[in-house]
TrEMBL record:
NCBIfam families per UniProt: efp_Arg_rhamno
Catalytic reactions on record: dTDP-beta-L-rhamnose + L-arginyl-[protein] = N(omega)-(alpha-L-rhamnosyl)-L-arginyl-[protein] + dTDP + H(+)
Keyword Transmembrane helix: no
Transmembrane segments: none
Biological function: Protein-arginine rhamnosyltransferase that catalyzes the transfer of a single rhamnose to elongation factor P (EF-P) on 'Lys-32', a modification required for EF-P-dependent rescue of polyproline stalled ribosomes.
Similarity comment: Belongs to the glycosyltransferase 104 family.
InterPro entries (alphabetical): EarP
Gene Ontology MF terms: protein-arginine rhamnosyltransferase activity
Name of the featured protein: Protein-arginine rhamnosyltransferase
Pfam family, one: EarP
Amino acid sequence: MPELPQAKNRRRWDIFCTVVDNFGDIGVTWRLARQLVADHGLEVRLWVDDLRAFERLCPEIDTHVAQQWQAGVEVRQWSTEWLATDAADVVIAAFACQLPSAYMDAMAARVKPPLWMNLDYLSAEDWVIGCHGLPSVKYKTVQKYFFFPGFQPGTGGLLRESGLLERRRQFQQSPEAQRTFLQGLGIDPAPNAQLISLFAYENAGLSSWLDVLAADSTPTHLLVPEGRILGDVERWLGVEGLIAGALHVRDGLTVQVLPFVRQDQYDHLLWCCDFNAVRGEDSFVRAQWAGRPMLWHIYQQEEDIHLDKLDAFLALYTKGLSEPASQAINGLWHAWNAGHDMSDHWRKACKHWPELQKHAEAWCLEQALQADLAAALVQFYVNWI
Ligand code: TRH
């Protein structure tokens, strides 16, 4: 009897993740692994070479064990001493990581070779559409394919677990739920304060932004998770050794340092804030699902190729904005990514606040019309078999 398409999806998937630096690699693969289990009923092993980075996003991780289950995902320590393991039906190498050679041989030894994909970095550039889904290298009998996330039809889409936007909307419509969540993190903003979250790499432009926020007649409560931007915050405050829990007030600006919270809590933080400064890849996508105006600190790459990615995204994102609002966003994002003075750009953006708020929600809904990345991967596999 032929297998039903649904049964065909119930296969074993292996996801390989090397933590290069920061949290994007594990952030994306952990999210994907959970979603493949929760939304698609798949059997997923997540191979991670650095469980300590993983533990920051998921405190339940036991960094000392070789095998454990978290949220239905089998988490495996990917150590240098590779033990013989059967290859799965679908193999995802995240961000071009190199699979163990013994595992590659195990893939080739299967009667039916697995579907082998490289999950690439997110980019809004047009060439992504042409390359998504194309064959890449071959190892013996096993063909590898490019799988590109993206913002436009013809790409692999963005990670978005089922029910995400409904949950977000309910939370944003409940002042009580937001208050309870914030209080749980020790955050008690003044009722008229705007909430801003700040997750960024080192940035020389920060002091000019904090100056203008402090001088503003609208009070701001700035929430800064522990991380790389803290040195710039310390310099601006004229203090040293900021740690989670620190709270400093300068005129209209309250700066509060937060612990690095678990991934789900970080989502809720983004949902609470009026404006989110995010970085990298995963927090950038999550800020879009928050439906609030945002600022992206893109991960810097050699020869400034990240600036092409920044411009490609801005070209898509600002479609539908009025010309002055579009210019304000372009100016603000470029200043931030160049570490330049932010003050004029921030003031200009503030002039278009209602439009930017509406646009953030509209962009989120437009993006949600596309199939999400996990569903697109499953569909790719179904088409492939
Ligand atoms: O940490 P990042 O700078 O990761 C980067 C990028 O992904 C970049 O593309 C990649 O090449 C480079 O790493 C190696 O930013 P990103 O992608 O936003 O990842 C942060 C993750 O941390 C994200 O999953 C959200 C999560 N997070 C928490 O779980 N709790 C927190 O408190 C915070 C601030 C973040």
